[in-house]
Amino acid sequence: MTHSPRHGAHPSHQHSHGDLPGGPSGPGEVDQGDLTDLADLLDLDADVLGGHIAGVVASLPVRSAPRAVVDLGCGTGAGAFALLRRFPATTVTAVDSSPAHLDRLREKAAARGVAGQVRIIRADLDAPRWPDLGAPDLVWASASLHHVAEPERALRRVRDLLAPGGLLAVLELAGFPRFLPPDAPEERPGLEERCHAALDHHHAGQTPHRGADWGPMLAAAGFTVEDARTLDVDIPASADPAVGRYALHSLARVRAAAAPLVSAEDLAALDALLDTDGPRGLLSRRDLGVRTTRSLWAARA
What we know:
This protein is of the alpha/beta class. It has one domain: 3-Layer(aba) Sandwich (Rossmann fold), CATH 3.40.50. 36% of the residues lie in helices and 17% in strands. A seven-stranded mixed beta sheet has the order 3-2-1-4-5-7-6. Strand 4, helix 5 (151-161) and strand 5 (167-173) form a beta-alpha-beta unit. Helix 2 (38-59) runs parallel beside helix 3, helix 2 crosses helix 8 and helix 6 crosses helix 8. The longest helix is centred in the N-terminal third of the chain and has 22 residues, at 38-59.
């Protein structure tokens, strides 16, 4: 599935970038503390890739409009709001371990006039017990389950809490977004791919379930997979400033994580891209697009 440029700001929860550690990133002209703020990155992901997530939500094989939805690993609430737009009569229980993300979600719900339909719960999905999440008709887990230490146990818990006939939708990352053309930047062509290759190797032992095939795990947990798809997102080069900001925040996190893993020349090229005032900086480019791949499994208990 290939998606053209976004059609408005349909939020999506993507904690896709939560795998990239923040922290100091060395010299440069960008305030790395600001740029590596994950909540801001999730909001930009929602803005730029919202049309893609809205399409995923619209395609879910629900039998009827759910009365209750649980969003596991809700981030700043973009997935929850996409679900509320499709199912305006539902209530969403939004679960996350980050107080900052939940605070932002709460503010957004109030601003959208749906605070009464959003129940916010702070919880760790790896905890021995989960809080009472009710008996939802739909559980949405976007880029969250690969962080769980024991995903099989988490899937069994979801199976047990779903209402009879309920649906679980798992949306996972096959990789981090790419923004630059393959021959960019001019002084270090292929920079982005080299950085991501280094990070993939680095993260392989830390998040072993990122990029996994969730079909067998769902079957082992007692689910029947009704839909499994790979979703290719390709937003062509655009002058949209949101794409530039999304690239800036994303590559700032890449720089923070990749600094000890790439060459000094690649690191210098990254710094030039992250220079918000420089002529070679991301915000000055007009050739930035968004390319990413995500995978969807819709399964019924």
